[in-house]
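Posting for a labmate who doesn't have an account.
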Amino acid sequence: MNDQDLILYEAKGRIATITINRPDKANACNISMLKMIHENLIRADQDEKVKCLIIKSTGQRFFSAGYDLKEIQGSPENVLQITEWGRKINQTMILMKKPILTQVQGIAVGFGVMVILASDLKIFANRSKEELYLRLPEIAISAFPQTGATLLPLLAFGLNCAKNLLYTTDKVGIEELKNINFPTRIFPLDQLESETLSFVKQLSKYQTEFLFFIKSMLTIMNKAYIKSCFDLEDECAKIAYSTEKKSMKELDDLIQDMYKKFS
């Protein structure tokens, strides 16, 4: 498959759709795909006709397995690019004015979870935990939680749940998500596509100023905090990935410095 076909974009009426189209690789995103997702986010935000955006993926098993880890193995340069573009996507999704909805039909891991968390509304297929769950496995695979991996669950679920997700790497299914009122809507799998479109069409009928200002006001209230959280993740990652081992006292001093810098 041509790289250009891995991320699809369509603008129809007031709705734009970005589709992750790599089902044979569990919809895992490589650097090229991340760049295309970001480019299409900007494209949708700048399109005068578009009022709402859907992010979805093809296939039934995976919404997205996250970053393509094979691409970054043994390549510090690729790691930097993955984290750069992953942050750009999630930060853009949070800060752009147009409401973003994710249509989730299957398993989401790592960056796949972050895309869902960074969106404004979430539409899920009603499936069992074996067929659909969210999981943040960073600590278990020795990947530092960056590009929003600490900020986004904190914003979406609160402090206690964010800690549970990051420390346990547990799978979280629909029933657990329902208990914390996380899904915007839940539909049978065979109706997910049509019901999501119907929902977004209704949303796009609302007055443009109301639609954009609701999201923008909430974002503006938290913009400085959001940016500082992404910066904090990046700064901590540099230390965590450093080959120079730190003593407990050195780590404590660094953490105290960060309290001062980011408070």
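Reply:
Got it, the structure tokens are right above this. The two ends are 47 Å apart (CA to CA).
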